[in-house]
Structure formats: structure tokens, C-alpha cells
Design a protein that fits this description.
4-stranded parallel beta sheet; 3 domains; 6-stranded antiparallel beta sheet; D-amino Acid Aminotransferase, Chain A, domain 1; Rossmann fold; binds glycine; binds adenosine monophosphate
Length: about 425
């Protein structure tokens, strides 16, 4: 079948890499794509304005022109903007198979208040919270006075991963609440703020593929969000990932399934929300019990670059079955090897950074996978074009060796002002030397 993948990050390069290995994939198009996906790319850029109706219209025309049968949506923004609903209600694309929830389902990520209420309605374990809007500022400040510290303040809407602030004093919390509600620190996204109890534990990401009726668990992963080594400095989109996660043992994953995944899928069905796609559970393991920190309605980046190389099954079969609601007829095979992913970024990220730096070392042969994120081709040369530039993944029976292989490849790559963390996976090795 002909497949169209929306997105331009490392996640999409990894998806394209895996999709293109399937015998069911005839032609694959990626839009907007990056220098790593040009081999599959569309001849024109379909996404020009950041996922508005004009973009969706261009996508619909392209689907018809190229006989696309399956659309896979990588990032959250087009889902929250309603791309699935658009394609399903547009007469010319109503039959196209789409992997990615409808706008109502995407609210699980698009509105933290919706997600919290959904979890409360469906008895899904999550931190206790209350939501406040701008004219409830005084009530919110009052609520903060008696709250335990630290306290977590979350902008309701999408804020590019920056909308969560953990406050250690009441003054900081009050000021942050004022900044968000009164001064619109995150624009529209902070018109509502969720004030949430701080959960102490170890985080991990669990990925689910569901057709709204049945589901498969995909490999779990641990993401390294902070820019600095030993988890210091500002949050980023993710500086590395490893999979599997040793503490995600069978007992823990059984709790995740029965207490979180199944009530989530049943809750969506009960509320008549058509959900065919990925659910990414950001979880906190609190003394062996899983709590939902956040829902995302897509795969993670860079977790995808670590988990897809561990997936032995044909991804197109799984995606097609998801869109057709036939997932129950499929199975998922996972390789037991450990995967290590190291993200290489532009100096200055997640603050300001320069683009356009020529990347060297890309043609060196290696056993590792080099996924592109912020890259583009300029006069035959691949140059940096974003904060997160490349993600290097290696697989091995032992996590330690997978890390060595990945870092060996990282050392072959270079550009002016390159930065990457050198401690990816070290905490897991301390926890379990085999990484399993
Ligand atoms: P989010 O964007 O919701 O994933 O939040 C960003 C980060 O903030 C998470 O990855 C956690 O490290 C942290 N965080 C969010 N909510 C909580 C919470 N209730 N307790 C502790 N840490 C949290
Ligand atoms: N790695 C975290 C995310 O994709 O949101």
C-alpha cells in the first residue's frame, strides 16, 4: 500500500525506517520530513502553516493524487487540530486508513484538565489535582497556601513540553500561577492551570497501540529530559532513551495494564471517542505502583528511536490493523536486546542556537542507526536545521555494549557547536548492569 507519514522529527525518521521495511509498503511519503527522510519524501511540502485547514486540504489532495491508503500521524499538533476528523469527513478521503486519534481523543494530550477529569471519571491512578481559570486566581492562590511542597503547576494546553513547572516554595508557586493565569506566560495554553500534587518516584514511558477495542503494549523506555548530565538544567524534548527499563517487570506492567491501559481504552469507548493510534503513558513508579503523569496521543521522541528497533513485527501490518479495528488478529514480537539512543543537539539548545552547520561523518558505515531530526539538505550537504539534530541508536544483548556502540557512532559525527549528554543509561546500569 502507499503510505503517507506526517511529521519531521527523529520519531518520524524512525517510523519511516521501520515502515519501509515492510513488504506491505509500496510507496512511502514523509511530509514535511527532514534530510534523513528525503529518500521517501514528497516532491512538495504539504504542511506549510503549522497544521491548519489549508494544510489538511493539501494533504487530502495529495492522498487522492498518489493513491495513499494509509496515513500515519507522527506529532500531536495535527491530531489536536483535527486532521483525523478532517480526512474522515472529507468525501474524497473518507476511506483512507488513519493512524492517530480524532480531535476528541487528542484532548488527552491537548488539555491536561480534560486528561485529569478523564482519569478521575475512570478511576485511573494519577496525582491529586485541581484546575483553576483566570477569574479563579484568588481561589488558586488560596489553594496553594495549604498545599504540600513541592507543588506542580501545569498549563492546560500544548506548550511544547515547557508548560510544567515544579515549585519548591509557596512564593514561587504563587508567582508562577499569576504568570500563567494573569500574564498568560504560555499564551492560550495557560488560560487554565492544573495544580497537582508532586509524585516522588522513577519515571518511565509506556507505549500502547490501540484500535479502540483491543491493544498491544509496545516496549517501554526511559527518556532523559534534562539538558545536563545527572539530570540537571532545563527540560528538553529528550536527550536520549533506553529500552527496556529494568524496573518495568512483569508485576509492574500487569498493574499498568489493569489499572491504566484497560480503563483508559474502556473509558474512551464509553465516551464514544474513536481512538485508533498510539497512547504514550508518561508514568511515575511510586513504590511499585504506576501513576499517570501525562497522556500523549503519539509516540515519544526520542523513545521511538529506541523502541522501534526492538520491534520484530511488521509495523505496517500493525498500523493497518489499528486503523481497521482488527488489532485483535495481530501479535507483537519484541527483540530481547537492549536499545540505547543518544540525541545530538545544537549548542545552546533548548535555548537559542544557530542553524545551517554542515554535519560531517554521516557516510561512515556502522552498526548503529542514525536517525535525523533537525537536518536539511543544502546544495548536496546535510546541515543542522533545529535543536535536536540526530539520534543515534544501537542494539546489543547488554545495555552497556549498546551504549558503547551508540557512543562510538556519536564520536564519528560532528558539526560546529555540537552537544550531547555522555551519561545516557548510566542510572540504569547502576540499577541493573545487564540493563534488563
Ligand atoms: P509533563 O509535560 O506532564 O510530562 O511534565 C514534565 C515533567 O514534569 C515530567 O516528565 C515529570 O518529570 C515532571 N512532573 C510532571 N508532573 C509531575 C508530578 N505530579 N510529580 C512529579 N513530577 C512531575
Ligand atoms: N520524549 C518525550 C516526548 O516525546 O514527549
Amino acid at each position: 500500500m502507499n503510505i503517507l507519514l506526517l511529521g519531521s522529527g527523529g520519531r518520524e525518521h524512525a517510523l519511516a525506517w521501520k515502515i519501509s521495511q515492510s513488504p506491505h509498503c509500496n510507496r512511502l511519503f514523509v511530509t514535511p520530513g527532514n534530510a534523513g527522510t528525503v529518500q521517501f519524501n514528497t516532491s512538495e511540502t504539504l504542511i506549510k502553516n503549522g497544521y491548519d485547514q489549508a494544510d489538511f486540504q493539501r494533504v487530502a489532495v495529495f492522498i487522492q493524487q498518489e493513491n495513499i491508503e494509509l496515513v500515519v500521524v507522527g506529532p500531536e499538533a495535527p491530531l489536536v487540530a483535527g486532521v483525523t476528523d478532517f480526512l474522515k469527513s472529507n468525501p474524497s478521503t473518507t476511506d483512507v486508513l488513519v493512524v492517530g486519534p480524532t480531535q476528541a481523543g487528542a484532548e488527552l494530550e491537548g488539555s491536561k484538565d480534560f486528561a485529569k477529569q478523564f482519569m478521575q471519571r475512570n478511576s485511573i491512578p494519577t496525582a491529586a489535582s485541581r484546575t483553576f481559570v483566570a477569574d479563579e486566581l484568588d481561589a488558586g492562590l488560596e489553594y496553594l497556601k495549604d498545599h504540600n511542597l513541592p507543588v506542580v503547576l501545569k498549563a492546560d494546553g500544548l506548550a511544547a513540553g515547557k508548560g510544567v513547572i515544579i515549585c519548591t516554595t509557596e512564593e514561587e508557586a504563587s508567582q508562577t500561577l499569576r504568570d500563567m493565569l494573569q500574564h498568560q506566560k504560555f499564551g492560550q495554553a495557560s488560560q487554565k492551570v492544573v495544580i497537582e500534587e508532586f509524585l516522588e518516584g522513577i519515571e518511565l514511558s509506556v507505549f500502547v497501540l490501540t484500535d479502540g477495542k483491543s491493544y498491544h503494549l509496545l516496549p517501554e523506555a526511559k527518556d532523559y529530559k534534562r539538558i545536563g548530565e545527572n539530570d540537571t538544567g532545563p527540560n528538553t524534548g529528550g536527550m536520549g532513551a533506553v529500552s527496556p527499563v529494568p524496573f518495568a517487570n512483569e508485576e509492574f506492567l500487569t498493574k499498568v495494564k489493569t489499572q491504566i491501559v484497560e480503563p483508559t481504552i474502556q473509558g474512551l469507548a464509553k465516551e464514544d471517542i474513536d481512538y485508533r493510534g498510539f497512547i504514550f503513558l508518561g508514568l511515575m513508579n511510586v513504590n511499585g505502583s504506576p501513576y499517570v503523569i501525562e497522556y500523549n496521543v503519539r509516540l515519544g521522541d526520542p523513545e521511538t528511536q529506541a523502541i522501534l528497533p526492538r520491534l520484530e513485527s511488521d509495523l505496517v501490518e500493525l498500523l493497518r490493523a489499528t486503523a481497521r479495528q482488527q488489532l485483535v488478529e495481530t501479535s507483537v514480537q519484541i527483540r530481547s536486546q537492549a536499545a540505547a539512543t543518544v540525541v545530538m543537539v545544537s549548542g545552546g539548545y533548548p535555548g537559542s542556537y544557530e542553524k545551517g552547520k554542515p554535519i560531517t561523518g554521516l557516510s561512515e558505515a556502522s552498526d548503529s542507526l542514525v536517525f535525523h531530526a533537525g537536518t536539511k539538505e543544502e546544495s548536496g550537504q546535510v546541515v543542522t536545521n533545529g535543536g535536536r539534530v540526530l539520534a543515534v541508536t544501537a542494539l546489543h544483548d547488554q545495555l552497556e555494549s549498546a551504549l558503547e556502540l551508540a557512543y562510538h557512532q556519536v564520536n564519528q559525527l560532528n558539526w560546529e557547536d555540537i552537544y550531547y549528554r555522555k551519561d545516557i543509561g548510566q542510572d540504569i546500569l547502576r540499577y541493573s548492569p545487564s540493563g534488563k
